[in-house]
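Hi Y.,

Following your request, here is the sequence exactly as I used it, all 379 residues.
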Amino acid sequence: MKVVYCINGIYNSGGMERVLMNKANYLVDVLGYEVLIVTTEQKGRAIFFRFSQHIRFIDLNINYDNDKNKALWVRMLKKQIKQRIHKKRLDKLLKMERPDICISMFDRDASFLYKIKDGSKKILEYHFSKNVKLIEATNFFTRCLQRIRIYSWNIWIQKYERFVVLTEEDKRAWKGLSNIVVIPNGVSFFPNETALLQKKRVLSIGRLCNQKGFERLIAAWKIVNDFYPDWQLCIYGDGDKRNELYKSITNLKLDNSIRLFPATSDIGGEYLQSSIYVMSSRYEGLPMVLLEAMSYGIPVVSFACPCGPKDVITHGNDGFLCENGNIERLADAILVLIADTELRKKMGKSARIKSLQFSQKEVMNLWKEMFIEITSANI
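Below is the corresponding structure, written out as tokens. Let me know if you'd prefer a different format.
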């Protein structure tokens, strides 16, 4: 079977790119599929994650991002022009490649991919929550615009063979869609080693951007540091908020307690050296970092943001869920786990067991079954 994935680029260290790597590698190396990844913004940049050597890559050289700092009317005009070029190039490529399945990662191709008549079954997958744009909206006008945008999404989402979301929570938000299915992200490995949970070290991973809410974690850590100044918070990630976060750390006099590290493609060793994992995101899809931390036997603390944490964490059993944005509750949960080593170990064991529900094999079987089901409809 031949599968094509469409995504903006694979040069970032983001969760969506990592999920794509895990799925594509499994399809080619385990199931023997042929996989092609089509990008629009790669611009010759290095691929961040370790994709299988059997996967092919083609960049269409559309470069929407070149216009992101221009005036709104210029961006809108350029987008219309570039989308026509994008559709033409993708149409030509797909008719030449003749894949069985073509999957949009809900990027700029999502509004027109289903229109391309190359014989492939079209799938749309969404890695956030439905209301993410409403969460990001800063005023009444932008909220109204985003509601209109979501309404337009519903029109063309229904044109796809399947619309894949990550959580039951998000599925409930998309009302009236007959083609919607839930397939969570899978953990690509189940480590033989687990964290000993004895290091005075708390870990958090993600892009340094507004979505991940690291400034909220830093504020919570100020409270933690007042009680346990010998513990350290380590944050791994890249992004445009780095300088802002450094400034916040300095202003709160936490320079000796919080460390910011660049993103790394080999994070396993960092999990093993940590005793607690914390996620401070404003919103998510289904956070891989939570699942990975749990697979290493690490108890997790997270805001109960939409969507994902509530599908992953059983509060009080394998971690703690805190009211979204409640800094004091987040700090309190971290303090409870720091103070009680036995509770950390108990929750860590439960977390490792829970992560098995999201194993790569289980998740990829769901994808395989769906591929077979929709392609068999042609026979």
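The chain has two domains: 2-186+359-376, 201-358.

Thanks again,
Q.
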